[in-house]
Structure formats: structure tokens, C-alpha cells
Design brief:
Distance between the termini: 45 Å
Number of strands: 29
Shape: globular
Mean pLDDT: 84
Strand content: over 45%
Structural class: mainly beta
Radius of gyration: 26 Å
């Protein structure tokens, strides 16, 4: 093998996958150097910010010629970091970002969140966006711009969508979308529609998609150059046409997009329900997105309607490898318990380019735990596992005991079909917001607590009544606490 020219060896090795190359790097010094230069170094270059930041802090750079350091960091990322999620103790930070009472206006409730480099963006009720430094979790900025507090507010919730350097923020009136440059946090554009309220957003590198009035409204953008974003209207595409079979509104309408495909899901109600028919039908529309941002017609329209055994669809997430994970509730195999037909939740993984089902991650029944897709990271799907009944939302100041039913986080590997629990991550509620990166995890939780009233007896004395009066003070009433937790899987805690 020593007589093979280097360029021929490089060509041969280029046909092998990374796992085999990692093994072959131990064959000899020459192979190790070639694999390090041609494969390990590019592998580190293409890592996301949370990993590349740690590599740079270790003295590595994009033009580094230190092969030993490159190999050390490669194994740290390729093997040790992956293992840390399942069996290590990450270092953690947490902070309370808000405390509010039921009915407070405006409250500190967080409705959405995204992470850009070392900045955490929290969307608050009223569509205010607070920016925090992810290293110490301190508040550093509030995004300004767009409409003021006046005017009609159709909703208090706020949606955030991030791609490259561009952040899209929905408005309280649901008629505008504000666009920000995350490098500078400056507002760079505003998109407006008078066709109806915007109720869902999706974005890729060249397209911003807004769902409104059962239609897809598309604007041409360049997410890597937000300073040039002005929003060129691409057109309106009706997602569903009026039909005598269905009522003229959608119960649910949501979208996800990657660089190649736009997927919308919707639930339509039948106008007439026959014997054995379901009240509603769920649909998945898959459209190809062209290099110029053109959105095509739905492919496979004949199979857009989900099977009759699908009762409803919930959350979904789309990978860059065109894998769609969607949570569906399905009827069982006809078994009946106490006169009720059995239902269960299933995560279905579909290849949107072919329509084939790649995998199905079922639960035993609707009374068992529910697995909810969160996001894809490479070939791994991160999942919330929510037991029944759901715990972790309620607590009392008189002893915050651990909830019997703790929600957990896991990842499913499409290569091995294995579900691996992440024991270090503490998820308190199915509504907790989660951001997953290769080297860190951010969880935003809202927890309810109360101070129980003193017990009232028939012969309660004046002192006890005075204590009760203090208990009834609004300051001592029920509270919601919003907390941000950061789990750092690169810098592990001392064991």
C-alpha cells in the first residue's frame, strides 16, 4: 500500500463513510495523516456554532495544520460528545427570567424561543422579544421596531422563526412579520398582508412562508444576508380548495420547510358524517421548493388524506435529509376496553421525497407515555417522552417534592433504530420549550406554584385570621415562574 500515490489513496478513501475512516486512521501514520487532512479537518469545519466555538477555544482554526489537535477534537466531537448526552453529567446554569400571576397583562409568559450563536431570543406575550446572553443568561437587549402598542391585538402569543442570520417575528395583530438581523439585532424589514391573520410561519434560505386563510403566502428573501431583506412577494397558493365534503375552514394548519420541500398539515371537518366515518380528516401536502423559491403543486395529491384510522395530527419536524416526523393519534386494531375503542399516539417518520414510511415509533395506548417529536439533529430525532398523567407543572412552596411522573428527553437514531434516554435533562412539562444543539441544550419552563391558605377552624383565633389575611394578599397568591436552564455537554460537571 505504501507505493500507492497519495492522490489515488485520497480518491479511494473518499468513497468510504466517516465511521470506517475513523477506524482506518489507526492503520498507519500515512493513512492517519491523509484521513486527518482530508476528512477530520473538514468534519470540524462543518460543525455548528456550539461545537466550533469550543474547537476555536482549544486553539484549533480553519487553517490549522496541527494534525494531533485536529484528531483530538475530532474524537471529542465524533464519539465523546455523543456519549456525553446519554451517560455524562453536563455543567448547568439556570436563571429566573420572570414571575407573574394569572391574569397579569402584560405577563412574563414565554410563547416561543430560538438560539442564535450565543444569544437566546425569548418571545413574550404581546410579541415583545427579549435577548439574553446564553453564557450567563443575563438580559442584554429587547428587539424594537414595527407597530406600537396601539391597534387591535388578535393574539398575545408570538412566533419566532430563525434561519441563518434572519429572525422572523410575528406581530400582535397577525398582519405583519418583522425581520431582524441577528448579528446586530436591528430590524431590517417588515412584511405585511391584508389577506387575513397570519397564524403560522416557516422559513428557509430563500423563502418566508406565512399561512393565512387556508393559503400559503410566500416572500422571496436571502436569510444569509438579512441586511438585503425587503421581502419580494412570491405569490399566494391556496392550500385547500372549497369542497362540499368539508366545512370551509381548517381546524389546524401548520407548515415546515427545508431547502427542498414545503410540508403543510391540516385538519378539515366533514359537513356530513356517515356511519363509520370520522368527524375530521387530516391532510399532508408536500410541495417542492425550486432554486428560485418557486413552490410547486402538491405531489402525490391522491394520498394527501391520511388513513381513516388517523384521528388527529399534532407536532411535526422536517430534517434537511427530507425526513418528516409527525405525531399522530391512531385507532388501534379494533380492541375495545370498557366499551371504548383503543387509541394510541405514534410518531410516524416519512421520507417526503418518496412518500414512504421509514419508521413508526408507537406507544401502547393513549394512557401510556406519549412521545412528541422536538427536532432533528443530523440522523437523530429528539423526542419528549410525556407520561400519563403528566406531572412537573404544579408545585407548592411547602416542599417542592419531585413529581412522580417526570417528563424525559430522548433521541432516536435512524441508523440503529435505538431510542436513548437523556437522563441529565430535566423537562418539567410537555409545553416546555427546548433548543437542541450538538454541545448544549436550552430548556425554558413555566412552573405554577402557590402558597396554601392557613387551615380555618371554628374557633380560629385573631392571630390566625391575621395570617390568613396576609395569605390572601395578591403578593402571596398563585404565581407562574419562568426559568431558563442551560446544559453544557462539552464542559462536563465534576463527578
Amino acid at each position: 500500500m505504501d507505493c500507492i500515490p497519495t492522490e489515488v489513496l485520497e480518491k479511494i478513501l473518499s468513497y468510504l463513510d466517516l465511521s470506517l475512516l475513523a477506524t482506518l486512521s489507526h492503520v498507519c501514520t500515512r493513512w492517519r495523516e491523509v484521513i486527518t487532512r482530508r476528512h477530520f479537518h473538514p468534519y470540524l469545519l462543518c460543525q455548528e456554532f456550539s461545537v466550533k466555538k469550543q474547537c476555536l477555544a482549544s486553539g484549533w482554526s480553519s487553517d490549522s495544520e496541527d494534525g494531533a489537535l485536529t484528531r483530538l477534537l475530532f474524537w471529542r466531537v465524533y464519539k465523546q460528545l455523543e456519549e456525553a448526552w446519554s451517560n455524562a453529567n453536563p455543567s448547568t446554569k439556570e436563571t429566573v427570567v420572570g414571575v407573574f400571576s394569572p391574569g397579569d397583562a402584560p405577563s412574563h409568559r414565554v410563547t416561543d424561543m430560538v438560539v442564535f450563536k450565543d444569544k437566546l431570543y425569548l418571545a413574550m406575550e404581546g410579541c415583545v422579544v427579549n435577548v439574553h446572553d446564553i453564557n450567563d443568561l443575563k438580559h442584554i437587549d429587547t428587539l424594537e421596531g414595527g407597530e406600537g402598542e396601539g391597534g387591535e391585538h388578535l393574539t398575545r402569543s408570538c412566533q419566532l422563526v430563525l434561519h441563518c442570520n434572519t429572525l422572523a417575528v410575528s406581530s400582535p395583530g397577525r398582519d405583519k412579520v418583522r425581520l431582524f438581523n441577528c448579528e446586530t439585532d436591528e430590524m431590517v424589514g417588515e412584511i405585511e398582508t391584508r389577506l387575513g391573520p397570519i397564524y403560522n410561519l416557516a422559513m428557509n434560505d430563500r423563502l418566508l412562508v406565512c399561512l393565512s386563510g387556508w393559503s400559503c403566502l410566500a416572500w422571496r428573501i436571502n436569510s444569509s444576508r438579512p441586511e438585503t431583506v425587503r421581502g419580494q412577494f412570491q405569490g399566494m397558493i391556496p392550500d385547500f380548495q372549497p369542497s362540499d365534503q368539508f366545512q370551509n375552514w381548517l381546524e389546524i394548519h401548520a407548515a415546515v420547510v427545508n431547502n427542498t420541500w414545503l410540508v403543510t398539515r391540516a385538519t378539515r371537518m366533514r359537513t356530513q358524517v356517515g356511519i363509520g366515518d370520522t368527524r375530521s380528516i387530516s391532510f399532508l401536502h408536500v410541495r417542492r421548493v425550486g432554486p428560485d423559491g418557486h413552490i410547486g403543486d402538491p405531489i402525490r395529491p391522491e394520498s394527501a388524506a391520511m388513513p381513516e384510522n388517523v384521528v388527529e395530527m399534532n407536532s411535526m419536524t422536517l430534517s434537511e435529509d427530507n425526513l418528516l416526523a409527525v405525531l399522530v393519534m391512531v385507532r388501534g386494531d379494533g380492541s375495545v376496553l370498557r366499551g371504548v375503542q383503543q387509541l394510541r399516539y405514534v410518531i410516524q417518520v416519512l421520507d417526503v421525497s418518496t412518500g414512504d414510511m421509514v419508521a413508526s415509533l408507537p406507544t401502547e395506548s393513549i394512557l401510556a407515555s406519549v412521545q412528541m417529536p422536538v427536532c432533528w439533529r443530523g440522523e437523530k430525532l429528539f423526542i419528549k417522552i410525556v407520561p400519563k398523567p403528566v406531572g412537573g407543572f404544579y408545585s407548592s412552596e411547602e416542599g417542592d417534592e419531585e413529581d412522580e411522573f417526570q417528563i424525559s428527553l430522548a433521541n432516536w437514531d435512524i441508523r440503529t433504530n435505538q431510542l436513548t434516554n437523556i437522563p441529565a435533562a430535566q423537562v418539567g412539562s410537555s409545553t416546555d420549550l427546548i433548543s437542541v444543539e450538538l454541545a448544549r441544550l436550552v430548556v425554558v419552563s413555566t412552573k405554577f406554584s402557590h402558597r396554601p391558605l392557613s387551615h380555618l377552624e371554628f374557633d380560629t383565633d385573631l392571630e390566625t385570621l391575621a395570617h390568613m389575611e396576609a395569605d390572601l394578599n395578591p403578593e402571596n397568591g398563585p404565581k407562574f415562574t419562568v426559568k431558563v436552564e442551560l446544559y453544557d455537554f462539552w464542559n462536563l460537571a465534576e463527578s
